[in-house]
Design a protein that fits this description.
Layout (H helix, E strand, L loop, with lengths): L17 H25 L3 E8 L5 H8 L8 E5 L5 H4 L5 H6 L6 E5 L8 H4 L5 H21 L2 E9 L2 H13 L9 H7 L2 H13 L5 E5 L3 H19 L12
Parallel strand pairs: 1-3, 1-4, 2-3, 4-5
Helix pairs in contact: 1-10, 2-10
Length: 249
């Protein structure tokens, strides 16, 4: 069944209590840190978390909150921006392979390889045939990571409404502490909202590894939702602390 983003709420359910959810989030963040420690010590499997969404959807805030209790040793974040000349000289997945997590680590992609079938498609920099071939390459890369490198992949679409996005973009102008985030180009990209949604839906619906659609209009629920998925995934991975093997006398 195809996902249509316009039919999915970007707000939390009405029956949730904000304070209770924030308390639960804190508990889950602590448990995430404990499991990350075990996974790093074990060194046999890894986790790749992909945060993909429109500007101001909360990618940075998610990293700061959900992974706050993780040991910096064993977790990395990489923000994918416009490719460098060196990266442009290679295939589009070349830079992604270099940032893929080693066993024992958590790697967080702030934006990702999906940019190459999103912004480039929206602005008609690549053909539809090129998009389809890149989608196949992306699926192949993700399957390689999961089934050949023991890397679990979690993909989150940061689902924010256009109204909430505009509020947050305006905050970057009005709030001096957020001025550094302001980019005039973000408003230009907002003009292409409908086309971005079409391209996101294509990426989501044509992925072999499923996406989690994270409602992001409220920070507290966004953090709760993503922390819950991350925690349940790490629990299923069940990392174990290595034990010394005692030699026989």
């Amino acid at each position: 069944m195809s996902i249509k983003l316009s039919t999915i709420p970007s707000l939390p359910p009405d029956d949730l209590n904000k304070k209770k959810m924030e308390a639960k989030t804190i508990e889950m963040v602590i448990k995430i840190g404990e499991l990350q420690h075990k996974m790093y010590a074990e060194g046999k499997q890894s986790l790749l978390v992909i945060l993909q969404g429109m500007d101001a959807s909360g990618k940075d805030g998610t990293v700061k909150t959900v992974f706050a209790d993780c040991n910096p040793t064993g977790i990395d974040t990489y923000a994918f921006k416009k490719p460098t000349d060196e990266e442009f000289a290679h295939d589009f997945l070349w830079r992604v392979h270099q940032k893929s997590p080693r066993k024992g680590n958590i790697m967080i992609f702030n934006r990702s390889h999906y940019e190459d079938i999103l912004i480039q498609r929206v602005h008609k920099w690549i053909t539809e045939e090129h998009v389809a071939k890149r989608m196949k390459a992306i699926n192949a890369y993700e399957e390689l990571m999961e089934f050949d490198n023991n890397t679990k992949i979690l993909k989150f679409y940061m689902h924010i409404s256009p109204e909430r996005q505009q509020e947050k973009l305006q905050e970057r102008i009005d709030d001096p502490t957020k001025n550094w985030k302001h980019k005039a180009a973000d408003w230009d990209e907002n003009d292409h909202w409908d086309e971005y949604m079409r391209c996101y839906e294509y990426a989501i619906n044509n992925s072999y590894i499923p996406w989690h659609i994270a409602p992001c209009d409220k920070r507290w629920y966004r953090n709760y939702y993503i922390a819950k998925v991350v925690l349940s995934t790490l629990e299923a991975m069940n990392p174990q602390l290595p034990l010394l093997v005692k030699e026989n006398d």
